[in-house]
Design brief:
The complex is a heterodimer. Chain A is α/β, with parallel strands linked by helices. Chain A has helices spanning 7-13, 33-38, 45-53, 69-74, 92-106, 128-137, 151-160, 168-171, 200-211, 220-224, 241-246, and strands spanning 29-30, 58-61, 66-68, 78-84, 114-120, 144-149, 180-185, 190-195, 230-231, 236-238. The longest helix of chain B has 7 residues, at 21-27. The radius of gyration of chain B is 22 Å and the shape is globular. Classes of the chains: A alpha/beta, B mainly beta.
């Protein structure tokens, strides 16, 4: 019969008695070029992300071209990714309109430095032809692909890219996944997300921060003021005596 | 309300209690899954495969907290240096490497100058893991501890020596330093777009004088951490945080000082303990999932940057400044010997009176200052600081469990003289709700919610040039905070403290009756009403500050608002 494991026995098993405790483990020192070069290698960020998050699923573009997600769409690129479906009448409409404005503001960087990828959550309805028509209706230019594929593949992709809700009931509502843009710089392994309903200038700025090295980021006052100053619809209300009477009594 | 319960835990951790295999697995003492506590939904687990399936076993209580390793050195002042003009943007117009500062500045002659290089550091979390290349203020994790005295301003120049690129790829080397809990001008507050890049630096001026000149507004435990747009969570995770301690005429920093000095435990007996969690891959390298916007949880617990360390203690009173520096994890702490904590401070301020509790909750960004008395223990005794709170995702804290996970161990190894005192009155409130409430004219409601996969406050997305409130300087307002959808959000208000008036009409729990700069709402935490006095005297210009969720993944996805003090 195994003897029970107790705190006392555990510490002795692990050699954690006071007498046997190591008192001077490797000191933590500032890195020098030598120690950094000799240290075991941290896995490459881009490679880890490719392995964990960028499945090479088969897809079809709005032009009917057969492509693979990682190999043909993401590898070596800066991308924006969103989920939509053409029959969507809710938040997809302003999301797509917003992205169209961002597309315009990116000018000739579109398709050269930045690729937009829009994935249909409705594989049955959204054939390449439907998507092509949708793209034409939304004034989509070069460098913006609308993609459809197997439903299970798109679901996998959505979850891998973080466009999911933890609450299964909320996750079942497609409209919850159509309001976010995922931004990625694949070679650098840099990924983030922003609401597709943010001001198009903010989305463009976030894309620029994903694309450019930090030394070329435009930040500070000028970047802030690119969108005119606004005050939210008044959150404020006057305090009425009845409001104070609703508060619990103060400490004596 | 379970998590607000400050009562006795259901079960104490007895030194002779048997361990279940599940507990050992959870601590990583025997091989097992990645989750320390509970399981993530199947498809979340499935999304982590291969090298992320299992972290190496790390025996707890192997690393000792020692000066320079876990116990951060105190930053020492340097010879004053000239301050220079702000080129106004992250990139200098002439592409030079000139200092980027928010000067030029005229600072009072008694200002202490500090110079901190922000640099990579080879860091050992635990002997069973390889060294990880982190980013550290002063090339250290955690960063050097600043010790400030009321009335002595500090000007700190942070120099960004981080590489433009590194293969680790966690964090982006653009920086904004926020002194969390500090009372400082907007340009020194670490606004998310006031960033500086590799090769540049930025000066932060901390006046270290209490708001409105009131003794009650003297600060105690504040901290500093990165606050750069989009990347706060990754940059803090990579190592960019440290403690900033404040002393004043009452809390003098020496237990030898006679009354009216408080005489709290001081010197080596005043110890910051920074709680964090980190996720390690099968080879012991740090991993961060930048696709997890729900709130990122780790599979190992750190105190002051070391995995489950131990601290040798004397049989006397200690002051522990406990900071939850985690991205998304909530804790509920208890001592394994069942002894109480005497809480003396919450967030940035000391309490009016100490409160004895057997356990307490602490959410992301919060601080709880406690006195732990090791008198009456035996030499050789080992006492663990235990987290009893289960959490499976970034949504909210889970249930209390027994026995929980030990975060660190106190090993009683000596006697030491103890001149410290814990007076019945610590920091008297002379201007609180009793004095201010009848003057309040304005109230505002902020509902923290989620809509179409993004965060909103009152249904609105964040914009850098939009303000949600414009309180007048010197006035007090009542703000109501609400949360929807079952999420808990630790809401942090920059630069000003809150008096919590109530939660859903009920008086707040004991530990929320002092002042707070973070308030948890949602999940187990009911809606809250708070009183804020906007003491703002840094300039004639309006001062713009942020308030945001301190689950840093929510913050990076813009769960943020701004207010402008007119």
């Amino acid at each position: 019969m195994k003897s029970p494991l107790t705190w006392a026995r555990l510490t002795s098993l692990l050699g954690l008695g006071m007498s046997s405790c190591p008192t001077a483990a490797t000191p933590v020192t500032a890195a020098t070029p030598e120690t950094l070069a000799n240290a075991p290698r941290h896995p490459d960020r881009a490679a880890t992300i490719r392995e964990q998050h960028l499945p090479n699923i088969p897809l079809t573009t709005q032009d009917g071209r057969k492509v693979h997600f990682y190999d043909d769409l993401v590898k070596g690129r800066v991308v924006t990714i969103n989920f939509m479906y053409t029959k969507c009448s809710g938040v997809c409409v302003p999301s797509t309109a917003n992205l169209a404005k961002v597309q315009k503001s990116l000018g000739d960087r579109m398709g050269r430095d930045v690729t937009f990828l829009s994935f249909s959550l409705d594989a049955e309805e959204d054939t390449p032809e439907t998507l092509n028509e949708f793209a034409r209706d939304n004034d989509v230019g070069p460098g913006w692909f609308f993609l459809t594929g197997q439903k299970a593949d798109i679901e996998l992709l959505r979850r891998k890219l973080g466009a999911y809700e933890l609450d299964p009931a909320v996750d079942a509502d497609r409209s919850q996944h159509t309001g976010v843009v995922i931004l990625g710089n694949e070679p650098k392994g840099r990924w983030q997300a922003i609401s597709a309903l943010s001001h198009p200038v903010r989305i463009r700025q976030a894309i620029e921060r994903t694309l450019l090295p930090p030394s070329q980021w435009r930040v500070g006052r000028e970047a802030i003021a690119e969108v005119p100053f606004e005050k939210s619809p008044a959150s404020q209300k006057l305090v009425e005596p009845v409001d104070l009477s609703r508060l619990p009594p103060l400490d004596p | 309300m379970k998590n607000l319960n400050h009562g006795s835990p259901k079960k104490r951790v007895s030194p002779h209690r048997k361990f279940t295999r599940r507990e050992l697995v959870k601590w990583g003492i025997v091989g097992g899954g990645t989750a320390m506590f509970g399981l993530r939904p199947a498809w979340v687990r499935a999304s982590r495969s291969g090298s992320l399936s299992r972290a190496p076993v790390t025996t707890p209580f192997l690393m000792e907290l020692l000066p320079g390793r876990g116990l951060a050195p105190v930053s020492q002042p340097v010879t004053p240096f000239p301050t220079m003009e702000d080129p106004g943007d992250c990139i200098n117009e002439d592409h030079s490497q000139a200092f980027h500062v928010s000067g030029p500045r005229e600072v009072p002659p008694n200002t202490e100058f500090h110079l901190i290089q922000v640099a990579p550091v080879s860091h050992l979390f635990h002997p069973a893991l390889p060294a990880n290349v982190l980013w550290g203020y002063g090339g250290q994790v955690p960063g050097p501890t600043f010790v400030a005295r009321s009335g002595t301003p500090q000007l700190i120049r942070f120099v960004n020596q981080l590489p433009e690129d590194d293969a680790v790829g966690i964090g982006v080397p653009t920086l904004a330093v926020h002194r969390h809990g500090g009372h400082q001008a907007p340009q020194d507050d670490g606004y998310p777009l006031d960033t500086f890049c590799p090769g540049q630096s930025r000066d932060y001026y901390y006046p270290n004088s209490p708001a409105a000149g009131l003794l009650q507004n003297e600060h105690s435990t504040t901290w500093y951490h990165d606050h750069a747009i989009d990347v706060t969570s990754q940059n803090v995770y990579r190592g960019l945080s440290g403690c900033y301690l404040n002393f004043n005429p009452l809390d003098t920093g020496s237990e030898l000082d006679p009354a009216p000095a408080l005489g709290l435990p001081s010197g080596e007996f005043d110890v910051p303990l920074v709680l964090q969690d980190r996720l390690f891959d099968a080879n012991g390298f740090l991993y961060y999932d930048s696709f997890d916007h729900n709130g990122f949880l780790g599979n190992k617990f750190l105190v002051n940057g070391l995995i489950q360390p131990f601290l040798r203690v004397a049989r006397r009173k200690y002051r522990f400044r406990i900071l939850n520096g985690s991205n998304a994890r909530f804790y509920n702490l208890v001592l394994s010997n069942g002894r109480p904590f005497t809480v003396i401070g919450t967030d940035s301020n000391l309490l009016e009176r100490p409160i004895a509790v057997s356990s307490f909750p602490i959410g992301p960004g919060e601080r709880v200052e406690v006195i732990v008395d090791f008198r009456g223990t035996t030499l050789g005794q080992k006492i663990q600081l235990v987290n009893r709170l289960e959490q499976t995702d970034g949504r909210k804290p889970g249930d209390l469990v027994s026995p929980g996970v030990p975060l660190m161990e106190f090993q009683v190894n000596r006697d030491a003289p103890d001149f410290s005192r814990v007076p019945d009155v610590l920091l008297p409130i002379t201007e609180g709700p009793r004095e201010l409430l009848h003057q309040v004219k304005i109230q505002r409601t902020f509902k923290f919610g989620r809509s179409n996969g993004a965060w909103v406050i009152n249904g609105e997305l964040f914009d850098e040039n939009r303000i949600q409130a414009d309180p007048r300087r010197g006035t007090s307002e009542i703000w109501h905070f609400e949360s929807g959808g079952g999420w808990t959000h630790p809401v942090h208000l920059h630069n000003f403290e809150m008096f919590i008036l109530g939660r859903d009409g009920a008086r707040p729990p004991l530990l929320e009756r002092g002042r707070k700069d973070i308030i948890n709402v949602g999940g187990p935490y009911p809606n809250a009403s708070v009183l804020i006095k906007f003491d703002y005297d840094f300039s004639e210009q309006p001062g713009r500050y942020a308030f945001h969720c301190h689950t840093t993944e929510h913050e990076d996805m813009r769960m943020m608002g701004q207010f402008e003090v007119l």
